[in-house]
Design brief:
By secondary structure, the protein is of the alpha+beta class. Strand 7 and strand 8 form a beta hairpin. Helix 2 packs across helix 10, helix 2 packs antiparallel against helix 11 and helix 8 packs parallel to helix 11. It is elongated. Strands 1, 2, 3, 4, 5, 6, 7, 8, 9, 10, 11 and 12 form a twelve-stranded mixed β-sheet that branches. Helix content is 56%, strand content 16%. The protein folds into two domains: 188 residues, no CATH class; 176 residues, no CATH class. This is ABC transporter permease. It is found in: Cell membrane. Belongs to the ABC-4 integral membrane protein family. InterPro entries: ABC3_permease_C, Macrolide_Exporter_MacB. It is a multi-pass membrane protein.
């Protein structure tokens, strides 16, 4: 029984055959580039959409299954809301929007929206800290606050806790991305209450979420918690996030375009198949000679498959390169806020896998036919 050849010489022979037939190899690669490129573009678009659509939605509205109840800010409601937040089994935070508190920029005089918070806010709305450290929720001599990128560009911020009071200097402890393009500041509630307290025009927002819970269950539990602690809300708990709906829409679009890309890739597979069958007759004597010199049927099949897979990988590499160039060129123009240097590695991996699979499928039939060529072919030559 003849032994199989080691993979090294077989792949070396496949590479040599590709190099000697560079023109035909280029045509085979070209038939694959468009198909693999479509797959790469879909993966890149999916990753970019997650940054452009899903991430801002989480920052502004909260992660999946985020619910909110609101109430007027009174001492009783503040205490009740704090109890709801502390006893909540998942992530919960308390936001207070107080129209009487003013933060303004000294240079421009522009007023900035103030958001007072306590609890696990960043577990619900995962603000990335770009510079500095997120302020601790405890009283300090100088108010420490976080600002978004729009507010950080203003500079010279001062806070006026109550109408007519003397503006106080603040310490900007962090610059965060909160998904908003308008200037906003985030200040710990204890720091604000120690200077202003709760005003009549302020509104409390209890935001809460649960992992692995159905939406109806989370809503019911939040309503029950508010009733149990005597929080007189402005209505039933409302879902404030749209992450699941956006993700479902993006997944549907991704699946649709992947199907189109798969059809395009199938054309490339057929191209490799046609070229493989055309070259089979030209190389029949070579394969028969290899068989007569000791190569097995499996050796011949592996040789043909290795060539087609290398062609597939070459086409996939070219497609990934074109996809990278398009990403670097188009993203700064059409997707504001996405870093053009962050080309998704997953797109390259998927593209290479698609190219290798296409080469394997396109070379399967020629490999099978080559392995079945009779040794007598070389005797008739």
């Amino acid at each position: 029984m003849r032994q199989l050849q080691s993979p090294g010489p077989l792949f070396g022979s496949a590479l040599q055959s590709i190099r000697t037939k560079s023109g035909r190899t280029a045509l085979s690669c070209l038939s694959l580039v468009l198909g693999v490129l479509s797959i790469v573009i879909v993966e890149v678009a999916s990753s970019t959409a997650a940054q452009v659509v899903l991430q801002p939605a989480e920052l502004q509205q909260g992660r999946s299954n985020t619910w909110e109840v609101s109430a007027p800010a009174t001492p009783q409601s503040m205490q009740a809301a704090s109890s709801v937040m502390r006893q909540w089994p998942g992530d919960a935070a308390l936001l207070v929007t107080d129209q009487s508190v003013v933060v303004h920029a000294s240079a421009t005089g522009q007023h900035i929206q103030v958001n007072a918070y306590t609890g696990s806010l960043r577990a619900i709305r995962p603000f990335p800290v770009l510079h500095g450290k997120w302020p601790a929720d405890r009283p300090t001599l100088t108010p420490a606050l976080a600002v978004n990128q729009a507010a950080s560009a203003l500079g010279g911020l001062r806070i006026q806790p109550t109408p007519g009071s003397q503006p106080l200097p603040v310490h900007v402890s962090a610059v965060v991305d909160d998904g908003s393009s308008t200037p906003q500041v985030w200040i710990p509630l204890q720091q604000l209450r120690s200077r202003a307290g709760a005003e009549a025009e302020a509104t409390i927002h209890v935001i809460a979420r649960l992992d692995g819970e159905h939406a109806a269950s989370t809503q019911s539990r939040l309503n029950s918690a508010a009733d149990a602690f005597g929080l007189k809300t402005n209505g039933e708990a409302q879902r404030v996030d749209t992450v699941d709906d956006l993700a479902a829409t993006l997944d549907t679009m991704r699946t649709t375009f992947l199907i189109v890309g798969g059809v395009t890739l199938l054309v490339g597979v057929i191209g490799i198949l046609n070229i493989g069958l055309a070259t089979l007759s030209e190389r029949s004597e070579e394969f028969a000679l290899r068989r007569s010199l000791g190569a097995t049927r499996v050796d011949v099949a592996v040789l043909v498959l290795a060539e087609s897979m290398m062609i597939g990988l070459l086409g996939a590499t070219a497609a990934s390169g074109v996809g990278w160039a398009l990403y670097k060129t188009a993203v700064p123009i059409f997707a504001d806020g996405v870093e053009p240097d962050a080309f998704p590695l997953q797109a390259c991996i998927v593209g290479l896998a698609a190219g290798a699979s296409a080469g394997l499928l396109g070379g399967a039939i020629p490999a099978l036919r080559a392995s079945r060529l009779p040794i007598a072919v070389v005797m008739r030559a």
